Input
Amino acid sequence: MAWGSMLGAFAVIYFFTFPHYRQGEASVAGKKAEDFAMNLDGKPVHLSNLRGKVVVLNFWATWCPPCVEETPALNRLQTYIASRNGVVVGVAADEDQAVYEKFLRDNGVIFPTYRDPGTDDNHRSPIAQNYGTSMYPETYIIDRKGVIVRKIIGPQDWNSPELLAYFDAILGQT
Output
C-alpha cells in the first residue's frame, strides 16, 4: 500500500513537470507547420516555400515591449543561421502599416518580416491565432521538412550559449 501511494505521488509530480502542463497546452512539437501566404521582400510566398530551411517563426508586434527588446537578438540570430540555410521570419500583429514600416527602419530589422493585414484593432493576428499563439512574442522552430520541433513562449536571449548550441544541432540535421 505504501509503495502504491508513493508510486501514485511520483506519477502526479512527474505529470506536472511536463512542459505541456506548465504551458497550459498540449505540445505542438511534431505537428506540421500551418502554411500561410505572405509577402517577403515584396514577393508573394507561402511558408511552405521555405521547406529545406530551418525557420524561426516569430510572432511579434511593434507595440509589445518584450518583442522590441528581443529584436536585436533576432537580428543576430538571422546572421548566425543564414549561411547554414536557416531563416528568422517575423509575423507582426500590427494594424498600422506605416508604424510597422517605421519600426523596421528605426530598428534595423534584417530578418524577413510580414505584417499580417488581417490583424484587428484588438491585436489579434489570424495567422498567429491559427498557430495557437496566445501572447507576443511567441516563436515556433520549424525543421527543414516543415515540422514544428519547438514552441517558445515569451522573449528569449536568442544568442545565449544554450540556444546557439540548439540551433547548431538542428541546423546540422538533414
